[in-house]
Every structure is written in C-alpha cells, then in structure tokens.
Amino acid sequence: MFKKYSLSLVFILGIFICMLDTTVMNVALPQISKTIHTDLDTLSWALNAYTIIFASFTIPLTRVAEFFNKKYFFFFGALLFGIGSLVSGFSTTFVILLFGRILQSFGAAILFPLSMSMGIELIPGKNRTNVIAILGVTQGLASAMGPTFGGVITEYLNWHWIFFINVPLALLIILLGALTLNDDDIIQEDLQSIDFLGSLLGIIMLSSFTSVLIEGRTWGWSSITTLAVIGLSIVSFIIFMITESKSRNPIVPLSLFKDRNFSGASLVIILSNLFLVAVTVLLPNYFVNVENLSTLNASYMITPITFSIFIASPFAGFLLKKVGTRWLIFSGFMFMAIGYIFYADFNALKSVLFSCISGAFVGIGYGLITGPITVIAASDFKGAQLSNAQSVVSVLRQVGISMSVAIFVSGLYVNLSSAEKNTIKYSDNAILAMNLPSNITQKIQEQTTRSIASQNLNSKSTPNLPANSMISTQISENKKKIEKYAKNAYTFAFSNLYQKAVPFIFLGTTTILFFSRRKKY
C-alpha cells in the first residue's frame, strides 16, 4: 500500500512541477524585469524558451530513456529540473535566468513524459484508470495554478522563490523514487536503434513551429523571418512524415493516429489547453492594468478556475463510466463556452462576481475533459506504444499552450492598439469641445496623447490630463469622461477576444465524432 501511494506521489509531483512552470512566471515578469534590469520583450524569452524546448525535445529524450534506462533518466530529469530551478532562483542577470530556464526545460522534457508513462505502467489493475485520470488532472490543475501560485509567492516572499520551491520537490521525487522504484518493475523496451534522423527532424519541426507561434507577433506575421521559419517547419514536417513512414523504429509511430480515440483525444487536448491558457494568461493582465488590482488580487481572480477543476475532476471519472466519452467531452466544451460567453459580455467582465462565475464555468469544463481525455489517450496502448502515445500527448499539450499565446496575445495587441487610437481620438475631440484657447488646447492634447502612447501595451490604464488652475473644473470633468472611455475601450479589447472565441469552442464539441459510442473505460 505504501509503495503504491509513494509511486503515485512521485509521478504526480513530477508532472506538477513541470506544468506549473509553464505559467508560474507570467505574473512575476514585471518584478523580475525590475530586479535584473531587462525589458519585458527580452525577458519573455526566459518564458518562451521553456515551452519551445519542452515541446521540441520531449519525444527524442523519451526515446533515449527507453533505449538506455528509464529509471535513471527519470532521476536525471528531476535532478536537471532542480538544478535549473536553483540557477533560475539565484539569477541576477537575464543570461543566468535564461540558462536556468533552459536546464529546467530539458529536465521537464525528460521528467514529464516518463512520469506519465511509468505512472501508468507501474499502477496495474483496476487502479490504472484512476491513476491515469489523476495524472491528467494534475497537468491542467498545475497549469491553471501557475498564475495564482506565482502571484502569492511574489507578493509574500519574492520572485526568486517561484523557482526555489521546485528544489525540495525535485529532491523529494528523487528520494521517494529511489525508495520505491525497482528495476524489475520497470518495463524497459528492447529497442535496436534510435531514429536519429527522425529525432533531428522532429526537433527542427517542433522548435520552428512553436517558435513562430510564440514570436510571430514580435517578428511580424508577414516578415521574412516568420515566413522563413514557417517554411522550415513545413518542409521538416513533410520530410519527417516520409522518414517516419519508412523507419523500422520510428520516433513517432504513425500507427498511433490510426486509432480514432487517440486522434480525437489529441485534438481535444490541444483545444482544451488552448482555451484554458487563454484565460489564465490574459485575465491577470486585465485585472492589474485595467481594473488596477494588485498582482496578488489579480492572481486570486484566477482561483475559481483552479478550484473548479479540482472539484469537477473526480466527478468526471465517475461520469466517464456512466455517460460515456461523447457526452462528457461535449459537456466539458459547453461549460467552457458558457464561461467564455460571460467573459465576452462587456459589463460582466468588469464585475468581480461575474468574472469568478465565468472562471468557475471554464474550470468545470476543463475539469470534465482533462482527466478522462488522458485515460482515453492511453487506454488502447501498452509498452512502447504507451510511452510513444504519452510523449506525443505531452507535446500536443505544449502545442495547445503555444497556440493560445499566438492567437490570443496577438489578438490582444491588435485590440489594445485599436483601443489606444480610439482613446486618443476621443480625448482630442473632448478637449476641442472645451473651447479653450488654442495654445492651451494644443498643450493638453499633446500631453494627453503622450500619456496614452507612452503606456506599455500590456499596462493600459487611463490617461492623466494636466491640471490648470484657471480651468480645473472643466478639465476635471473631461478627464473623468476620458478615463471612463479609456477603461471601457481597454475592457472591450479583452472581452472582444472571448466573444470571437465562443464559436470555436462550440466547434470543439464536434470532436466527439472521433470517439466510439460504446467503448467503456
């Protein structure tokens, strides 16, 4: 009994720390930027490098672990993640922080998929489905907890501790693993060779694809750099598919996707993580920069999502057996759609109560999906195919996160730019309507425009008009009008994104057509 629970804890912790660090840095970026004197655009690479490397190297490093020794590679992944966390925590410059994050990401690329595949292999019998569901729920829960966890740690300690906290957890994984993992229990696949060409092509394909998703907005979607990286991704994908179809020991067996349930699960994993991250990443930004909440309070606004995932997930395992896959996935996307409909309402988004209700719906929807879909993705496979399936699923989860950043953050920048232009236009007209002397009007317009334009696109608040003792009352009244207009404009910049996303969430319900009506889990 002790061994079963210890093993479960080892693999749960392995998944937890890897997924937590995909989002834990988000709310701490402004604090980190001030401490290490680096602008946010440069600093974002410490965040993006983790996702890119995690996605690109998961499959090749999993295959290397299968070829040599999964147990010791598992320990090595935990150790590498812990060392990377320590380096990141002690960092005083961007270069050191980036190096630490790179170490973390390579550790995660080993630790995460092995936690999934070994966790499923080593918990046999009737408990297997429950363990798979718990491991799946841990992934979504950790990712959703990231912003809240990062906000609380940054507020009460400092940003260094969002990395330091990983070190004892990594040591606990190694210690418990050493006590409970036996070589005889681990299924070591008899692989004759490693598909080096497929591995190289896979790394090029995934790194270029995730890079363009994350950095396409910065580079410019029609720039030569973006188009070249897209071209590299497409060409490497085509060659990769040809190589894998002819390889004796492919790094990604294409036969996995002949299984309808696995193909459907893969699509659902991408979409569900895309829609979850679109909320957990963007909303703290809104509450800090538009509603002027503290970083800590903004982080708390995400808590209903995490809490709802935690509450809904246990019911999902029960419902999977009772109502089946199709109804459960359909219900999950419908709940997420309802949450997005609330977020899409201009006035509801500004209400703390309705924002919490919206987050609860999104969390319930994701909770109904994440555990069962992990069970479905693993249910038809054993041995090497199971490891391959979990590696692919791990990558697809990161792809969903990257796509969310590409689509929603890019859309937000466009909306914020439009809000800025409209606010400047409105303020100019409001100032002209005061019928002040031309020299005063021009001065106020210039200062107001600078006040709006100088704001960072991620930190839009209301403009500050200059005071003037002669016309203070008139200016004060117009200032309030402009502040109200600006707040509404920037609120709409966020709500409009969720409004446009609603039809695509409803479209996500069509993924149920992939799944068998009668299959039991």
Automatic annotation (TrEMBL):
Residue ranges of every copy of the Major facilitator superfamily (MFS) profile domain listed in the record: 7-445
From what superkingdom does this record's organism come?
A: Bacteria
Membrane-topology descriptor: Multi-pass membrane protein
- Keyword NAD attached: no
Query: What stretches pass through the bilayer?
Result: 42-61, 73-99, 105-124, 131-153, 159-181, 193-214, 220-243, 264-288, 300-320, 327-346, 352-378, 399-416, 497-515
Q: Which NCBIfam families match?
A: efflux_EmrB
Protein name per its UniProtKB record: Na+/melibiose symporter or related transporter (MelB)
